[in-house]
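Bumping with the actual sequence this time:
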Amino acid sequence: MRRNPKKGGQFAIIWVDLLYEDSVPATAKILFGEIYRLSGPDGWCDASNQDFMDLLGCSETTVRNLLKALEDVGQIRVVTQPRREGTGGTERRIFCGRKLAPPEAQKVPAKNCGYPGEGTRRNLRGVLAETCGSTYSKSIKKSIPPIIPQEVMDEVTRYAGEDQQLLESLRAFLVNRATPPKATPVKTAYGMNRLLADLSKKSEGQRAVKLAMIDNSIKNNWRGFFALKPDELPAQDAEPAADQEGIDGI
C-alpha cells in the first residue's frame, strides 16, 4: 500500500458505523479512510481512480465497485462538474462523512477549521482542519503491532520479486484480512507460504490470473484464493484450474 506524503493529512478516519457495516468490503473501509485523509477543509477530495489503484494495488473495476459500495450506504457522495475557470472537461469531487448534508452544502466556513475559542480546537465531522497539531508520539507507535508481520511481508516480497503490482495486490489482500470486524490476519511465514503456494497452483503460474484471483478475494472478503470461473478469466488466458477449493493462512 502506497501513500503520497505530499498530499493529505496525518490521519485516516473510519466512522464506527462504517467500520462495523458488514455489507461494505474491508478494502472499501480503507479507501474511505484515504478519502478522508485526502479531503480538504471543504470536506471533499479530487483523487483519481488511478490514485486509488496505486494505493490499493487493484484494478479500476475494483475501485469503482468499492466507491459504489460506500455510496450505497451513504458514506460518500460523488459529484462530477465542469472544471473551474473554463478549462474544459469535468472534475470529480468525493464528499465523505457528510451523508446528512444536502448536495448544495459544499462549502464550509473557515472558522470550522480554526480556533472558535481561546485554546479550543474543533472540527466538523467529515471535514479536515487545514492545520492540525499531532499528539502522536514514537512511544505510541512502538506499542502498536504492525498490521502485517515482518516475516509475512518478507515472504510476500520474495514471492513478488520485481513485480510491484503483484506485491501491492498481495499487501492489499493482507490488510483486508486484518481489518475489523472479521479480522483474520496472516501471522506466520508458514501460513503465508501456504497461501502463496495455493495462489500459484490455482493460477497455473499466470500473472494476470494471479492478479484477478487476488482482486476477487479482496472484493469478496475471502480469507484465501480461489480458482477463477471461466467467465472471470482474463481474455488471454485459457481454462481455469480444476481445483476450486481455497486454503486459509495460519
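The C-alpha cells above came from a reply further down the thread. The chain has a mean pLDDT of 75.
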